[in-house]
Amino acid sequence: VQLQASGGGLVQTGGSLRLSCTASGSFFRANTMAWYRQARGNQRELVARSLATAGPTYGAAVKGRFAISRENANNTVYLQMNDLTPEDTAVYYCFQQGSLGTYYDGFWGQGTQVTVSS
């Protein structure tokens, strides 16, 4: 299973970006879809998480500004990011966990850079 993320870039403070991440693999069925981020010098932190059978959860820093959504049919997860600030600058990683035939495993995307200028 490979995850392909896109949508990062450079935006000014107050701007918006939308990230997307699609998992390949005919037999993969994602349960958990999530976005993490890692700023330079910091640990990777949870941004948002969506479970197939539960509502989304958000990190405290992004609650009310970011929204996670998903398309189960094609294992795609989105992250709508609004009212961005320089503190949101980081590499954003998507993560999907689910069943692959008889296995259950998690997979990471390659990361997409988001830079917010002041």
If you had to describe this structure to a student in words, what would you say it looks like?
By secondary structure, this protein is an all-beta fold. It contains no helices and 11 strands. The chain has strands at 3-6, 9-12, 17-23, 28-38, 45-51, 54-58, 66-71, 76-81, 90-100, 103-108, 112-117. The strands form 2 sheets. Strands 2, 4, 5, 6, 9, 10 and 11 form a 7-stranded mixed sheet that branches. A 4-stranded antiparallel sheet has the order 1-3-8-7, with no helix packed on it. β5 and β6 form a beta hairpin. It starts with a strand and ends with a strand. The relative contact order is 0.33. The mean pLDDT is 95.
Q: What are the low-pLDDT stretches, counting only 5+ consecutive residues below 50?
A: none
What fraction, in percent, of the residue positions are helical? under 10%
Provide the gyration radius in Å: 14 Å
Secondary-structure-derived class: mainly beta
Could you tell me the strand content as a percent range? over 45%
Mind sketching the topology for me?
Blueprint: E1 3-6, E2 9-12, E3 17-23, E4 28-38, E5 45-51, E6 54-58, E7 66-71, E8 76-81, E9 90-100, E10 103-108, E11 112-117
Q: What's this model, at a glance?
A:
This protein has 118 residues and is mostly beta strands. Helices cover 0% and strands 62% of the residues.
Features of this protein?
118 residues; mainly beta; seven-stranded mixed β-sheet; four-stranded antiparallel β-sheet
